[in-house]
Amino acid sequence: MAALGWLTPRRRSATARSVLAGEASAEAARRTALDDAREAPDADHEDPGGSGKHEPDFPVLGDDRAAAFFDLDNTVMQGAALFHFGRGLYKRKFFETRDLARFAWQQAWFRLAGVEDPEHMQEARDSALSIVKGHRVAELQSIGEEIYDEYMAERIWPGTRALAQAHLDAGQRVWLVTAAPVEIAQVIARRLGLTGALGTVAESVDGVYTGKLVGEPLHGPAKAEAVRALTAAEGLDLSRCAAYSDSHNDIPMLSLVGHPYAINPDAKLRRHARELDWRLRDYRTGRKAAKVGIPAAAGVGAVAGGTAAAIALHRRRR
């Protein structure tokens, strides 16, 4: 994919693959947002509960150059979208038990070792992508709708949903930003009545997945690149935008905007947010896994999370 010309200048912390992943995700989000809005079923707009409160002067009513960007896992939804998606694929016999064990080991190794070895990560991504290689985009999109109903709908954080709704009520656009497959992210965004989603993009030819990613998973710096690309293309002002996340991995994205929020933050993000006087919200009933050295997803979540980590479901513009 050729580089998109509307990217703004950036610090060179992102790799070329991060930039490519971000550009591809922003392009996919812009291309599908209007269609999603026209075809979406009515979102459920009852009072979502939670705190439901926001700063009295924010979001600013009628500011059409502002938007909000929400991380998905443990920010909007309890747990990992990839974990639930992996469960759905396993239930539908996309892979066998021996594959499940291999993916679980790979994912657990990443989380327990605490390092990202490029060779090992490439092996894991190749294994995961091999599951959907040869499957049609439309098939996985349809399955994504079913998986949302089965595993995800009851796991939306009411407090975070109220924050997103506040931006919508102010006339602003709201986007999910996640390493999950872009089609899965789009399903969740559509069901919640949001504008759209930025997610990991996979290559397809004639509607069939090739088993390759466009760039890399939308993670860390790649998320920041996607937000940067989308805001530039949409004529938004980053200093007037907001971003929400639970993870220190999203500090690059949070640092881009004028209104960063730490939602259900991990220890590193909580510390960083306090140092910079960022707003914090915690909708958990308890500080689950806050003092645990191993991330919560290293257990059961590692099984399906490793399986689906690189399964991004979008046709690449050719």
End-to-end CA span? 7 Å
Number of strands: 8
Overall, the morphology is: globular
Question: Which strand-content bin applies to the residues?
Answer: 5-15%
State the major sheet.
6 strands, parallel
Mean pLDDT: 74
| Helical proportion, percent range | 40-55%
Q: Structural class of the secondary structure composition?
A: alpha/beta
The total of helices stands at 11
Order of helices and strands: HEHHHHHEHEEEHEHEHEH
- Report Rg: 18 Å
- Which residues form runs of ≥5 with pLDDT under 50? 1-12, 36-56, 287-318
Largest sheet, spatial ordering of strands: 3-2-1-6-7-8
Features:
single chain, 318 residues, alpha/beta, six-stranded parallel sheet, two-stranded antiparallel sheet, 11 helices, 8 strands, disordered N terminus, disordered C terminus
